[in-house]
Specification:
Oligomer: single chain
Helix content: 40-55%
Structural class: alpha/beta
Shape: globular
Length: 144
Amino acid sequence: VIAYTSVYGNTKKAVELLVEKLDFYGCKKVEVYDLARCDMSQAVAAAFKYGTLVLASTTYNGDVFPFMREFVEHLVERNFSNRKVAVIENGSWAPLVAKVLSTMLEKSKNIVFAENTVRILSALNKESAEQIDALAKELCGVKL
């Protein structure tokens, strides 16, 4: 499951690239939820259905975007556990999403964070696109 929030569309573009890369590396079953536009209960249910969750969000006032905060709070309240979590963070000069989400998920048991965290500084560039590729390989179990 990929759950995301995007203010100007750049985080959405990163998610679309990740979906493309996941498909390329053989991970065909991916559900994507735009948390500002979807039914939050469906996104929460999907997060519990699968073993891996990708959280992609913009940094907003030194925090995560409100819809992402609400989503993660729902997960923690319902004992979200035993999952792999990956993070795509976006921020123009100080992306803080990975740090904030890590703190929010501290109460959850057996959460393993992906080795690859994607950091976007406003818009995708060559470096962040390579990070997305590395994350897709990790999530699909592609050996280098």
